Amino acid sequence: MKKVISKKYIKPLLVGLFFSNIATNSVQFIISLYILDQTGSTSLFANIMAIALISKIIYTPLSGNLIDRYSKKILMVVLDSMYLICTLILILAVHHSAICSVLIYNIIIGAISSAETPLVQASVPLLVEKQDLMVMNGLVSQMTVLSGILAPMIAGVAYQVFSFTTILLLSSLFFIIAIISEITLKIPMIDQEIKSSLANLKNVLTFLVSTGKKTGKLALLAGVINFIVTAFVEVAVPVLFRLKYHVASNIFGLIQAGLAFGILLAAMLTPLIVKKIKLNNVYILMMVSTGLLLITGLAMLYLNSQLLIISCIILSFVLVQFVFTVVSIAILSEIQGRVEPNMLGSVLAIVMLISMVALPLGEVFYGQVLAIVENNQDEGIVFIAISSVSMLVAWISRKFFK
User: Cystine design at 197: which of 62, 129, 326, 366 (Cβ 3.0–4.6 Å)?
Assistant: First the structure.
């Protein structure tokens, strides 16, 4: 790992990514609190947040062409500069029309953020050798997870002490740090034939269903994982622990921290794990971890101890988060190693779009399912069903990494 992180052009990418994510996550977190405090309307809050997601979904498949066509370094600087400008404008506009300002901000930010993740992912193969992709993707994932943990903590504490606009100014400072770091980056430029966004999108889709079928299957696997596993954990954690078992808020916070730690630990250990078990055996990890969901389901069916059931749920969820983070990093590294650099950004944008659409669809599905279950037996059946489907997916995917 030292070999990768010591390279002088890697550090600016990680620093820029960290501070950019801290800023964007802080702004999104503080906007959600601000809207709820100002209006008291959960439906209005949900609609405003959904608009950002819709904007992101619309622009994501088109962003790949920009990533492949232009300098990735310049694009990173431009994106964070646009974040900075939009945040500064929001500071000035929010006092005149809070709801309208936040609405427009979210639409613009959704469009900007559509290029952010595939841009970073497409830059990684240009900065490290193929054998270092797994390590580098683990480092990028660590920065993302850390910023995701720290941003709500920083913004939440600051919101109790400072004003809304003061926190936006602090986030603007983080954007400036990210921009300064990204300016020092050196990313090789790839020659690219100029095409329209729609023509490029058609070309990428053709690649994924014909010459790059294995890459297309990996993209679908990422989406299926988000729909079946990730969405279930995200919905089940608050529903089960807060609504069903009435876990105290401080204990619930520790559970959330444990899940986040599982993701962070997976990002750190992915290269070592894959090296030990080999990439084509990753599906075994998937089957073992989802097998714990099966055991948890059986515990719900046959045990009466609430403490034991809660312990089983926590253990299974932490392991599932850990393993599927490893799988996600492995999928990303495989795609980066298989696709030519001149179309990697476009391919990764489609991969991101599939996963991004799958997650809310899964959340809606599981929200409906968990709303109609009435007792431990029903929930046990749900866990067993999800475990069975997940193990089937793991078994089918065993050939994808060969």
Answer: 62
- pLDDT of the residue at 174: 94
Task: Encode pLDDT of 222-275 as tens digits.
Answer: 899 989 998 888 888 888 887 778 877 667 777 877 888 888 888 888 888 887
- Alpha carbon dihedral 303, 307, 309, 314, in 10-degree steps, equals -160
The helix (run of H) or strand (run of E) holding residue 132 is: none
Check pLDDT > 90 for residue 203. no
* Residue 68 near residue 342 (C-beta atoms within 8 A): yes
- Which of the 8 DSSP states describes residue 399? G
Q: Encoding tokens for residue 398?
A: 């065993």
Q: How confident is the prediction for the chain on average, in pLDDT? A: 83
Q: Is the pLDDT of residue 2 over 50?
A: no
2-184 and 203-399 in the same fold: yes
Write out pLDDT tens, residues 233-247. Answer: 888 888 888 777 887
First to last CA, the chain: 25
Does residue 55 register a pLDDT over 50? yes
CATH architecture of 2-184: Up-down Bundle (1.20)
Cα–Cα distance for residue pair 293/168, rounded to 1 Å:
41
Q: What local confidence, expressed as pLDDT, does residue 263 receive?
A: 86
Q: Provide the 10 A C-beta neighbour count for residue 324.
A: 25
pLDDT at position 309, please? 87
Q: Which of 120, 119, 114, 151 is nearest to 19 (CA)?
A: 151
* 236 phi and psi angles, rounded to 5 deg: -70, -35
Q: Is 400 helix (H, G, I), strand (E, B) or coil?
A: coil
Secondary structure (DSSP) of 33-62: HHHHHHH--HHHHHHHHHHHHHHHHHHHHH
Look at the block and give the residue holding tokens 């954990």. 233
Domain 203-399 has CATH 3.40.50.720: no
Instruction: Give one DSSP letter per residue of 196-262, joined into a string.
Output: -HHHHHHHHHHHHHTTTHHHHHHHHHHHHHIIIIIHHHHHHHHIIIIIIS---HHHHHHHHHHHHHH
Residues 6+ apart with CB under 8 A from 200: 64, 65, 68, 346
- Extents of the domains making up the chain: 2-184, 203-399
For the four alpha carbons of 380, 386, 392 and 394, in that order, the dihedral sign comes to negative
